[in-house]
Design a protein that fits this description.
The structure holds two protein chains of two kinds. By secondary structure, chain A is α/β, with parallel strands linked by helices. Chain A has two domains: about 170 residues, Rossmann fold; about 70 residues, no CATH class. Chain A contains eleven helices and ten strands. In chain A, a hairpin with a 2-residue loop joins strand 9 and strand 10. By secondary structure, chain B is mainly α. The longest helix of chain B is centred in the middle third of the chain and has 27 residues. The termini of chain B are close together. Classes of the chains: A alpha/beta, B mainly alpha.
Chain lengths: ~260, ~350
Amino acid sequence: MSADVIIKAEELTMRFGGLIAVSEFSAGIERGSIAGLIGPNGAGKTTCFNMITGFYKPTEGRVLLNGEDLTGRPPYEACKAGIARTFQNIRLFGNETVLENVMIGCHMRQKTGWLQAVLYLPSYVKEERAIRKRSMELLDVVGLADLASEKANSLPYGAQRRLEIARALATSPSFLLLDEPAAGMNPQETQELMTFIRDIRSRFDLTILLIEHDMKVVMGICEQIWVLDYGVTIAQGRPEEIQANPKVIEAYLGEEYVSHA
Amino acid sequence: MKTSTKISLNLAVTAALGLFLFWAQGSLDGYKIQILNLIAVNIILALSLNLIYGFTGMFSLGHAGFMAIGAYVCSILIMTPDQKEMLFILDAAYPWIQNAHAPFLVAVVAGGLTAAVAGYLIGVPLLRLGDDYLGIATLGFAEIVRVIANNIPRVTNGALGFKGIPDYANLWWNFGWCLVTFYVIVRIINSNTGNALKAIRDDEIAAKAMGINVFRYKLLSFSIGAFFAGVGGALLASLLTTIDPKMFLFTLTFNVLMIVVTGGLGSITGSIMAGVGITALLEWLRFVENPISLGSFELPGIPGMRMVVFSLALIFIILFRREGIMGMREFTWQGARNLLTGKRRAS
């Protein structure tokens, strides 16, 4: 494994009562790479995300970001450390405008608080203006600048996905987790999404880990892939290695398919 | 629309309010002035509950408790030591209660701050609860405050309460505090901190993922709301000149909740409109309690009838306009101009 590993999961295990959702998941992701986490439904992929982002406290194991131990820290601290995420079922702030959604992402790194806002100090006015400007720039990146004053829940599905990514980018992350970014997209949109993900990676110096069921996306942009089945890591490697791995084929297509092949 | 235009319009409205109050003070009778005072206090209470419930999404039923704290602290501070000596007939007051005395402004702020501290202290354990559970727990808190007020006679004079509280709370004080509440809450709501509060309301999980320390911001919103509830209670005490624990029953919270829900959860404009409307309506509806003659037919007056009429009106509002009068919308100068010039939408 290369020395420049940005995030490291060490034998993460998550037990819910008697159920082992994820068992000893270990992964090290290289800085600047795009990695994929795949597996059949219920394999524990989102549970892994939740452990990395602090939503679940892993039963065993550790999460390290740039060598800093983040295990068991609350989600907002993980976010502060530089981990941002999107959700499988889109979770926008529906009653707020598109612009406000992105501004909320900027809030974490804002220095002035409510007291400065009430006193209307120049430092507050200045910072708020800068945040507004930065949020507009981010909306420009995802192509939603025209819709800035629309309510978030009035956007079409694809735009909501992009807004969620813009909002995550607003927290200035170094590591971005995307939970099924291509879900519900047509082939044309999926193609655009792949270009978009590569684009934001280089533009914002990101390392990306994504969960995806669309194999075209996974094989197309991921450099390293982990495969989970029933919480167990059954394979890891480069896309072409994963495609040829009989265990993966079995998990996805069933035993008979392997024996006939 | 330019910011300077908006500021001058805001100043013009404030000046108009001032002129109106000046006129009201001179020309209206005591009853009407009392209604205006109640309007101001109800708006303060509604705005503070709207910050907690409408903007941060915390279903809190503890308003009567915060109001009681503000009312007692303020009353103790503005009554003279001699007055208190006359009042505490069952048990003599503790010396520090007996001798505490402060000007009205300090007393109101002290009432608000004590309520805010109480809000903070009960917020730490309670705000981890969600939705309905929080509602029940805060309701319990308000009851506890009331029971305590009943049982520490050396501080609160027990069930007898206070009488003859100095009536400093005139139109100027009440509407002054109303403006302060309005200004502070609007500033918070329109800042990015306000966006963070609304984010918590809309989706707590996503708010956490966006790096918002949800618990801290809930506590902040709850304490600020409690502060203004305390201020409202303090003003109410001086306005009515008499308080006792029975006044701070759940129905008091319910009245405020009714204003907030009718106006629209998450709308400042709605809270103000409903604050004016419901306070005035509650007085105006008194006519249904008097005997009414319809030609030869005479309807006898039924006490409590106006609450029946009022409840019916509420049922209709909830049936046909669930989001309240304003929903989450706000009045803006731009919106008013568009309405006047007939433009649908301008940038």
